Amino acid sequence: MKTIADLGDINNKKVLVRADFNVPLDKTDGKTITDDGRIRAALPTINKLLENGAAVILMAHLGRPKPTTDFEFDPKFTLEPVRVRLSELLGKDVVLASDTVGQDAQSKAASLGAGQVLLLENVRFNKAETSKVEEERRPFAEALAKLADCYVSDGFGVVHRAQASVYDIAKLLPAAAGELVFKEVAALSKATENPERPLTVVLGGSKVSDKLGVISNLLKLADNICIGGGMAYTFLAAQGYEIGHSLCEKDQFETALGYIKEAEERGVKLLLPIDTVIASGFPESETGEDVYEGVVESTKIPADKEGLDIGPKTVELFASEIIKSKTVVWNGPSGVFEKAAFAKGTAGIAAALADATKAGAFTIIGGGDSAAAARVLDNPKTGKKFDEATDFSHISTGGGASLEFLEGKELPGLAVLA
Ligand code: AMP
Fold it and tell me: Which of 67, 285, 332, 345 could disulfide-pair with 309, CB 3.0 to 4.6 Å?
């Protein structure tokens, strides 16, 4: 994979950077950024380019605008909040173009000098950006390419997408991976290429069907696979256990049984929950206390209840493997961590990863919900927030991208940088 150094002398050159600025916004005012982690993650690349004398043109998307014409501005999805935060973090004014490849972007890009930063409006205001048809994306990619001399791919969260600003553009300009993409690939590769063993994978989240590819690829690589979260109940039900109203995908029973068998054949330890936090229904209240019903053995979930978290014995079981591991990958919360009554399992897994990190393991959080959980939950062992910098070796900025990477798939946005 080419890096910024491979672009040669970028002094006075215009460098177009695809970043991932898809940050969460406060639901009430629609403009306050509630977690600026993705903007911070882009700073090393931007600063490196600026230090080397480049003029930086950033492109990114925010949310899911639905343009009906070729280009349609929607104030709900403007990158203005990102421009404000990025200016603060860089300590310099970032200019926002009112379009992406239109007159404003063209004139602002043309007059951009070395050391200056321009942000194009949301690339998804252009219908062509996400088109599945390459011929439809190409003219947009070509218009973007005209703005700059070279291209840096730094939006790890989108490298699994064959989109104009991620994939097609890289074929039109000298292209390289940015610092973030390079760091992500290096970290995730530690799990997929000759991992230090034992390698333990902890999976959770709501659906088995979302994680099929990951499970089948990691069954070939891991020493231990711990399955929690909503997806665990499909594995329990497939073996004939009562799971009440817990999440269940009946059409995945055969696949789940197949995984259990394959794990046995390969000598992979596949661990399922041994105890479960049950509820009378899905929680509506802030904390979930209203539906909390206690902890039962996972093979004895009452028919009228549902499992919403792994219990303390399961946390202990999974933690006992995690702490013995040299490499740990965690993807997907172990329960409904958004509600305090069902967050203990997820917090316990995060704490086990933190212990493993301290003991010298390389620990990876695979983005998305598990990364959010590690940010918002307290470490039950210290009563304080986790320290993202020291408790985990790597927190991925890309949920979907890191999953596809762990599935062993070729990611178009990475393949094009080869
Ligand atoms: P995913 O997007 O598949 O990674 O799933 C993440 C979501 O799964 C989170 O919002 C959790 O609240 C949810 N989740 C985890 N465990 C359970 C469970 N036992 N029952 C229902 N939802 C769950």
Answer: 345
Please confirm, yes or no, whether 400 is among the known catalytic residues. yes
Whole-angstrom distance, CA of residue 192 vs CA of residue 169:
28
Whether 278 lines ligand 1, by a CB cut-off of 6 Å, is no
Tell me, which fold does domain 4-182 have in CATH? Rossmann fold (3.40.50)
Instruction: Give nearest CA residue, ligand 1 atom 21.
Output: 230
Mean pLDDT in residue range 387-397? 95
- Strand-strand pairing, 306-310 and 275-279: antiparallel
Any ligand 1 atom below 6 A from CB of 308:
yes
Domain extent listing, the chain:
4-182, 194-407
Average pLDDT over residues 292-304: 97
What pLDDT digit, counting tens, does each position of 326-349 carry?
999 999 999 999 999 999 999 999
The CA-atom distances, in angstroms, between 220 and each of 158, 193, 259, 263, 408 are 26, 12, 11, 9, 11
Instruction: Please tell me the predicted confidence (pLDDT) of residue 88.
Output: 98
Query: How do beta strands 292-297 and 275-279 pair?
Result: antiparallel
For ligand 1, the distance from its centroid to the CA atom of residue 207, given in whole angstroms, is: 8
What is the architecture, at CATH level 2, of domain 194-407? Answer: 3-Layer(aba) Sandwich (3.40)
For residue 332, CA distances in Å to 69, 88, 161, 211, 232 come to: 37, 32, 21, 9, 11
Is residue 196 a contact partner of residue 329, using CB atoms and an 8 Å limit? Answer: no
How do residues 59-103 score in pLDDT, each as one tens digit? 999 999 999 999 999 999 999 999 999 999 999 999 999 999 999
